[in-house]
Amino acid sequence: MKRIVILISGRGSNMQAIVQACAEQGWPARVVAVIANRADAQGLDFARQHGIATAVVEHTAHGSRAGFDAALAHAVDACAPDLVVLAGFMRILGADFVGRYAGRLMNIHPSLLPAFPGLHTHRRALEAGCKAVGATVHFVTAELDHGPIVMQSVVPVHPSDDEDRLSARVLATEHVIYPLSVRWFVEGQLRIDGARVAHTAGASQIWI
Ligand code: NHR
Ligand code: GAR
Questions:
Q1: Which of 8, 33, 58, 62 could link 68 by a cystine bridge, Cβ 3.0 to 4.6 Å?
Q2: Is the pTM of this model over 0.85?
Q3: Which of 6, 7, 13 to mutate to test the pocket of ligand 2 (most atoms within 8 A of CB)?
Q4: Residue-level pLDDT at 37
Q5: C-alpha 127, offset from chain centre
Q6: How far is the C-alpha of 152 from the C-alpha of 178, rounded, in Å?
Q7: How many CB atoms lie under 10 A from the CB of residue 196?
Q8: Which residues of the chain have a pLDDT value below 50?
Q9: Which ligand has its closest atom nearest to the C-alpha of 117?
């Protein structure tokens, strides 16, 4: 059984989608822990209710980014994970942390990368007049939101959209592509080749 650790900062709906898909679809994997950088992350309640170990490593308790990263790595290593999943995790991680979990650290970002890395993606996409947006699952590298892409969803922008409506439509697709991407990883169906990620059996890596 592969061991999955999920890092969250807030609501944790992507974490929930992964926990539920793992249980319902009988993946050869188990979510062994959910770790948050905020004690008030709502997703911690769901994890506790489902008997998943939780931990909190507060960035505010550490004087430097390196100190926080080291404390977080300590908590993650204690879970001996095969895969570390960032699910709405809102702290940028340093090169040491990222290097430690190279090839087994995934993120979902709510834009069609390489467009709109960083924060406030839906607002920026609306301001730019985009007609389609989406979400991207990628392996994490030291360069923010630039790692090898596993899967993307494509979502239409409606003329009446505001940030809330658009982000809700994108989020619904995140709950499809993130569990599927994690499933592929734990089933050994992903091959990273430089900047590209291929599915070994040629499954579609786009969700429309
Ligand atoms: N770390 C690395 N090295 N590479 C990535 O690709 C990462 C990462 C850490 C988190 C998630 C990410 C996203 O998908 C992620 C990807 C936080 C920020 C940010 O600016 C940006 C991107 C992402 C997460 N965070 C502020 C900071 O100073 C804090 C913002 C806050 O606390 O609300 O760390 O979008
Ligand atoms: C999701 O839309 C995720 O893509 C985004 O935050 C939301 C978290 O929701 N992630 C980022 O913006 C990373 N910087 P969730 O906590 O309900 O999964």
A1: 62
A2: yes
A3: 13
A4: 98
A5: 25
A6: 9
A7: 10
A8: none
A9: 1
- Tokens, residue 180: 């599927």
For residue 77, the model assigns a pLDDT of 98
Question: What is the CA(75)–ligand 2 centre distance, in A?
Answer: 22
pLDDT of residue 195: 92
Triad 41, 44, 146: Cα angle to 5°: 65
What is the Å distance from ligand 1's center to 6 Cα? 15
Cα–Cα distances (Å) from 79 to 31, 59, 61, 139, in that order, read 10, 19, 21, 20
- Please report the domains of the chain, with CATH numbers, ordered by start residue: 1-101 (3.40.50.170), 107-208 (3.40.50.170)
